[in-house]
Amino acid sequence: MPELNNAARPLLNKRRKTLLVIGLGTFVLLGIFFWGMMLSPEAYGPNYSARRLAPCAAHLFGTDNLGRDMFYRTVAGLSLSIRIGLLSAGISSLIALVLGSLSAIFGGWVDTVVSYLVDLCMGVPHLILLILISIAMGGGAAGVITGVAVTHWPSLTRLLRAEVMQLRASPYVQLSRRFGHGPVYIAVKHILPHIFPQFVVGLVLLFPHLILHEASITFLGYGLPLDTPAMGVILAESMKYLATGMWWLAFFPGLALLLATQLFDVVGEYLKTLVDPYGSRD
Amino acid sequence: MFGAGPLAQRRKDVNFSVNKGLWKYLSGSIGRLLLLVLSATALSFWLITASPMNAVDAFLGEVNVSDAQRAHIEEQWDLNKPAAERYVKWAKNALHGDLGQSITYHIPVTQVLGERFKASLLLMGAAWVLSGVLGFALGILAAVYKGSWLDRIIRTFCLVLAATPTFWLGLLMLVVFAVMLQWFPLGLSMPIGRVAAEVTWAQRLHHLILPALTLSITGVANIALHTRQKLVDVLDSEYVVFARARGETKAQIVRRHGLRNISLPAVTLQCASVSELFGGSVLAERIFSYPGLGSTAVEAGLHADAPLLMGIALFSVLFVFVGNLTANVLYGLLDPQIREGGKADA
Question: For testing the chain A interface, which of B175, B181, B303 should be mutated: the one with the most A CBs within 10 Å?
Fold first, then answer.
């Protein structure tokens, strides 16, 4: 019946909408990432003829005490945040992948040790741990990146461990083992392809935490040097000028930070529906 | 709590097995606590000793001393001995309640911790209660009026708040309430230039409101969303349909069937949130220059005050563990289903 085929279809079905959101979100985030990297430092450098301006057409987020354009500083800061996020997400997720699979594959005392490490990492309040690691590394950018990178694996480790354990017990893996396939073959051919999507989703969902923790620790004065355009530095500096009524110094950069982290969250959640359509239905 | 009668009688019957299970659980937990505290402090100690920041420099500040005097200080502090040996010494002293001398404050660490903790406890306690009560109430409202505009507003509000960085929120609060409206002071736990004894409770409260509000907000979102979900599940259940058929009003249903089922998970969740509360207090205290444990931790780190930092690490580990333990014990103690389960095992 041709009429049926011609029936009006909504332009955006759920799958298309999901893909569109993921695509747009990734595009915006990548845009900020590259824009901030290509931005010349002069764009957010001091300009003494334009100090303490409230937001206007020329300076969307206003300017600070030194006449630095807050909009470009924010873009550069977000780009830096994403760069740090990428690096530390890579390290954190790699730790999670190794520990999670080891724990699930070998079980026994290996499993006990891994769970103990997870407990240890979660037993110390996160910010205190970040402060301690930053001190151990002598502060600065290295301290922040190391701290953020080596403290975000516990939740992902738990997730991957549960996933691998479930796969190991599944009939096709059992069967493959009976066929005489070795552990490496099984890991590469059967287990990795299955956990890879979960792994990617977990990695994307790590970003908001990474970025916010980096900003918090920098805000407290441990992280990146004061002259870098980092979100934590921008917000910490704004504190000095709040009493003089320069509210835009805190408001816009913080809002941009919130939106960027939310964008990561949205992309991650939509990826999750795409990867696992049955699991995430509300 | 939920009235006497048959329930109380049953509670007495299972009392014995509960106690047995509880003791077993508690002793297991204490073993875990010891192991955790030992390894967490060892980790902290290792991190601090690995630091290139020099404790002697931090101690001396701008003062110039000869190399011999330097060596003397290093010897007095055992800085030339291996880290493991120093850790054992620190742990031994800590068991006797001696956490050493703070480098920046020149008084015993326990004294600094005690003073600062009082201020922090006030702040964290206020935020904890506030977020619990507010979150619970909002969650119930959202669930009862599920699907209405009220529900939608509460949910959006919570989702946005849950994602908002604490320190940015604190800054906004400062801008709006302290700078623009001037309702509250800019910071500190009491007016400047007064002796602590002269400060009235009203003044203290006045200084406490903004930081406590900031700190409570992330917790509110968590509890509210959780409570809403639980209550929605309860209200969808068949026994609630039956209760409605019997003619109970919505308020009665919530009171009789809802609260009993949702209050326990909420309390547990709230107890388990102390780790985030502690982290949040570090940021909130920094923004409002509130002299609590969190701002002390930041200062200690910036000034390489190793003994104080160790004290704070130890303290925070204990604090978080007690919170989690309370959550677990409360769950086992208060939930009849879990209690019965424990009985079947015994």
Answer: B175
DSSP string computed for A187-217: IIIIIHHHHHHHHHHHHHHHHHHHHHHHHHH
Per the structure block, which two tokens stand in for B260? 């009993």
Distances in Å between the Cα of A81 and the Cα atoms of A185, A218, B94, B134, B169 are 38, 11, 40, 33, 19
pLDDT digits (tens, 9 = 90+) for B20-33: 666 777 777 778 77
Q: Which residues of B touch A128 (CB under 8 A)?
A: 278-279, 282, 297, 312-313, 316
Phi, psi of A58 (to 5 degrees): -75, -35
| pLDDT tens track for B308-331 | 888 888 888 888 888 888 887 777
pLDDT tens profile B55-77: 666 666 666 677 777 777 777 66
A179 to chain B, closest Cα gap in Å: 41
Selecting from A116, A220, A242 the residue whose C-beta is nearest the C-beta of B175 gives: A242
Interchain pair A120, B282: CB under 8 A: no
Interface contact A242-B167, CB threshold 8 A: no
Residue of B nearest to A213 (CA): B165
Nearest to B313 among A126, A128, A251 (CB): A128
3-class DSSP state of B279: helix
CB contact under 8 A, B36 and A265: no
* Best CA proximity match to A236, nearest among A217, A252, A255: A217
Q: What angle do CA B248, B253, B258 make, to 5 degrees?
A: 165
pLDDT tens for residues A170-227? 898 889 989 988 888 888 888 888 888 888 888 888 888 898 888 888 888 887 777 7
Instruction: Provide ipTM, 2 decimals.
Output: 0.79
Is A125 in contact with B180 (Cβ distance < 8 A)?
no
Look up residue B101 and give its DSSP letter: B
CA angle B166, B168, B169 (to 5 degrees): 65
In chain B, residues with a C-beta closer than 8 Å to the C-beta of A138 are 51-53
Q: What is the pLDDT of residue B9?
A: 40
Contacts 24+ apart (CB under 8 A), B301-305: B301/A131, B301/A132, B301/A134, B301/A135, B301/A222, B302/A221, B302/A222, B303/B58, B303/B103, B303/B104, B304/A135, B304/B51, B304/B53, B304/B54, B304/B55, B304/B57, B304/B58, B304/B103, B305/B58, B305/B102, B305/B103, B305/B104, B305/B105
